[in-house]
Amino acid sequence: MKSIEEAEIMGGTRVLVRVDWNVPVKDGVILDNSRIEASVKTINYILGKGGKAIILSHLGDGADSLEIVVREAEKFFPDVSVKFVRDPWNASSADGKMALEYLSNGSIAIIENVRFWMEKENDECFANKLAEFADIYVNEAFSVSHRHHTSVVKLAELLPHFAGFNFLNEYKELSRAFEPAHPFLFILGGAKFDTKLPLVEKFLNIADDIFIGGLNDLPASGMAFADNPKILLTIGDINALDANTETLDLLAAKIKEAKMILWNGPLGDYEKGFVAGTVALARMLSESNAKVIIGGGDTLGLIKPEIKEKIASHGFVSTAGGAMLDFLANGTLPGIEALKN
Ligand code: 3PG
Hints:
There is one protein chain. By secondary structure, this protein is of the alpha/beta class. The protein has 2 domains: 4-163, Rossmann fold; 172-330, 3-Layer(aba) Sandwich (Rossmann fold). 37% of the residues lie in helices and 16% in strands. The chain is built from 14 helices and 14 strands. The chain has a 6-stranded parallel sheet with strand order 5-6-4-1-7-8, with helices on both faces. α5 packs parallel to α14 (334-340). It starts with 13 loop residues before the first strand and ends with a helix. The mean pLDDT is 96. The structure holds 3-phosphoglyceric acid (3PG). Residues 20, 22, 143-144, 147, 297, 321-322 line the site of 3-phosphoglyceric acid.
């Protein structure tokens, strides 16, 4: 995988940058802009070399315009011209093809939500239409690189391709879980136990303790590995909607002795308001001496920014959710493989 620093970017080089600006939006308000922030270094690097940054992102499932995100992104580039290209193949519209053709060096164009078109199909024709806009391709969207989609996989086949700074950092930091310092505690919350199962199976060989909580206790308690001394489950009622005091005490004792901790997934049924266990765990992790890696959109959404900052100061806060789980389970992602080829 080549870093963006190995790319030949000079005045006029057109760089297609796949970012993941799929940010949480509620009632027209962006709740967390950290995914935008995570891509700023790479975009500024391109602009600093006189290149043109042409941004691609999805938002949600493809029903909503990227416009609200464009307005937020503009705040990170106060001295740069940022154009929103709503209709990239329309030759007669000012926010169409012309905006890309006349894009000045050192400026940014943001294309409308890629899921408006054939993004999810990993479609060659759509990839070709995107590739015409650029000279090189940069993937700065680790958190969507578990998707076999056009702007993640196919596009990399058509242009010289590189990884952005945040992408490489995610790769480096999450890879630490494969050769951890011990004792290594893995905390798996959330729901959808079937998506966690491969992780439990893999990390039984790597971790010293695996706590399975959230809404996974019940299915996990019926598995053969439930008797393995490395597996820790909620103490008491496994149907409880949040972690109780005994369970948090158990985690506190393990956290105290751990040198590395990996956490993904809330401990309670947060959608019904059961967030106290998750909040308490985040605080314990922020105060621990271990290297702590956390991720998952739902988990991060429940933790206060200052607690996240404290965790980041002795660990890593991933921008990825599903991609983090897939990477940990498989050691790679379709978007990584596309950059390696
Ligand atoms: C995420 O939020 O995990 C990524 O942006 C991927 O989004 P998706 O689940 O809609 O593909």
